[in-house]
Write a structure and sequence with these properties.
seven-stranded antiparallel β-sheet, 13 strands, disordered C terminus, six-stranded antiparallel β-sheet, disordered N terminus, single chain, alpha+beta, 412 residues, 10 helices
């Protein structure tokens, strides 16, 4: 498969309130579904066992607060697929999607299953140290976006929260073990809203091994070392311990559904040195962050960046993973309130940005501009809308490596 293969959007079948659900599908419905599923076959050959899908689905249930009476039929369906395909229980993503369409009566259940299929696929290729192709990411994103933008009617709900690092995140799958993250898959997005968290606490480490897959926009990663020192004069930073708060309590036990997080100065002083970076990451790239290694992600205040992200303790875990902050401060709290931003709006914004980037890379500037005009909430449209036509074209071309030899206009 070529890396530049184009995959039509994976089946989302987003319904509106009042749309009939269940098995009352027309012949044309099956034709459309069949075409979409066939398109997904060009992704990597990573098969998913029923046991793996069931485990991941359990994490989707936690992330979306899916009621037990909604989750139970999906678990039963996964088990029945395993029994039915005893000779070859591991199925490809498109095969699981087809089974979900035929075997699950309610659209909500199908959408939740598709998220689990996409996450299980990422889990498989990442643990096998395989690179996700652009087609792979397009497939996974299609499944995730379809579920996030679908109007759930049976109780499940995706939630957006504000991170201490400034981005907004949406949990897709949360699996905990002994109060710690076992696996946590999220959708991250930095908006061009200037909110980048408290920069004094930008350098941090993670308990679990982390991997990020870039969906759109550009971000830069920096790596740091931390050398303990004794005196305040020799220190640049102090280590801070992290705790989380939900509606019940505050503790170092990780909580999927948080209301805030707090870092407290431990008094452990040290000198921080940048050892790598900046390393730019753009669409279809991926990078890893080992557990307990200090880093920060930087996105321009007026920039846009979106990723799929996983914390996977199976690839590395340490209990003590501090945040670095001012040596002379005591604590800092970040509230999770997203200020009214919905997961569906974020997902649609990312999809528009992905389409815009493709048009730009193809040199289709007029079409890219029309896309901006047709999407009032387009992430970076504000600055170019206020500019004159010539400034608009210069802005559109800025920062892009264009895949065309015909762009010979003097941009100075």
């Amino acid at each position: 498969m070529k890396d530049n293969a184009v995959v039509p959007q994976a089946p989302t079948e987003a319904t509106q309130p009042g749309t009939p659900t269940g098995n009352s599908r027309t012949f044309s419905d099956y034709i459309t579904i069949s075409m979409l599923l066939k398109a997904m076959q060009i992704s990597s050959e990573c098969r998913i066992l029923p046991s793996e899908l069931s485990r991941v689905f359990s994490g989707v249930v936690v992330a979306t607060k899916t009621p037990e009476d909604v989750a139970a039929p999906v678990h039963q369906w996964i088990s029945s697929c395993g029994n039915k395909n005893a000779s070859a229980t591991a199925l490809l993503p498109h095969e699981w999607c087809k089974e979900a369409t035929l075997g699950l009566a309610h659209e909500d259940s199908q959408q939740l299953a598709r998220v689990a299929i996409g996450v299980a696929f990422l889990q498989g290729i990442s643990r096998n140290e395989q690179s996700a192709t652009p087609a792979d990411l397009a497939m996974v994103w299609g499944l995730v976006r379809g579920a996030i933008t679908h109007t759930m009617t049976t109780g499940p709900r995706f939630n957006a929260v504000r991170s201490s690092q400034g981005f907004l995140s949406v949990a897709l799958c949360s699996l905990l073990k002994d109060g710690n993250i076992d696996e946590l898959y999220r959708f991250h997005i930095w908006l061009p809203d200037g909110q980048r968290g408290d920069l004094q606490f930008a350098v941090h480490s993670h308990q679990a091994f982390a991997q990020s897959w870039i969906l759109a926009g550009e971000g830069s990663d920096y790596r740091y070392s931390f050398e303990p020192v004794e005196s305040m004069e020799d220190a640049t930073h102090a280590q801070y311990a992290l705790s989380w708060t939900d509606n019940k309590n505050t503790s170092t036990t990780y909580k999927t559904h948080q209301t805030s997080s707090t870092v407290v100065n431990t008094g452990k002083l040290g000198r921080t040195t940048q050892i790598e970076g900046p390393t730019a990451h753009t669409r279809d790239m991926s990078y890893c962050i080992p557990s307990a290694k200090y880093h920060k992600t930087e996105v321009a205040p007026d920039g846009f960046h979106a990723t799929l992200f996983v914390f996977d303790s199976h690839r590395g875990f340490v209990k003590d993973a501090p945040v670095l902050g001012p040596k002379d401060s005591e604590s800092s709290t970040q509230f999770r309130d997203p200020a009214g931003v919905t997961p569906a709006a974020l997902a649609n914004m990312v999809e528009t940005m992905r389409s815009w980037e493709v048009l730009m890379e193809q040199g289709k500037f007029e079409e890219a501009l029309k896309l901006c005009e047709s999407a009032p909430d387009f992430p970076n449209y504000g600055p170019i809308q206020a500019a004159g036509p010539w400034s608009t074209w210069k802005w559109l071309a800025r920062g892009y490596e264009l895949r065309t030899s015909t762009w010979d206009v003097n941009m100075t």
